[in-house]
Design a protein that fits this description.
Oligomer: single chain
Number of helices: 5
Helix content: over 70%
Shape: globular
Distance between the termini: 55 Å
Order of helices and strands: HHHHH
Largest sheet: none
Length: 102
């Protein structure tokens, strides 16, 4: 019986990226920015987000095994996980600093 790490990695990353998205949905500064931009631009940003982050998460689902997945992620320099971690930390710091001032 083979352990297919890719399934677990895919679903974990999708959860992780949705957690990141949830933080942006509750951030008032980002909401104001999206209220000012035209609707086609907002849809384009959403489409790009979906194509980049969720397609990246599906790599593990398609390739199954850790050594193959790792070679693909190394070639992409772990772009999406590093970006998501930075955005989550940045969003947390902004919320904490705003809540302390209010």
């Amino acid at each position: 019986m083979d352990f297919t790490f890719g399934y677990f990695l895919c679903f974990f990353q999708e959860f992780f990226y949705m957690y990141m998205e949830k933080g942006f949905a509750t951030n008032s500064m980002i909401q104001r920015m999206f209220n000012l931009c035209p609707e086609p631009l907002c849809k384009a940003i959403g489409w790009i987000y979906t194509k980049i982050f969720l397609s990246y998460a599906l790599v593990g689902f398609e390739l199954y095994y850790w050594d193959v997945i790792l070679s693909v992620y190394r070639s992409l320099y772990f772009f999406c996980p590093i970006t998501a971690i930075i955005l989550i930390i940045g969003n947390t710091v902004v919320f904490q600093s705003k809540s302390k001032t209010q």
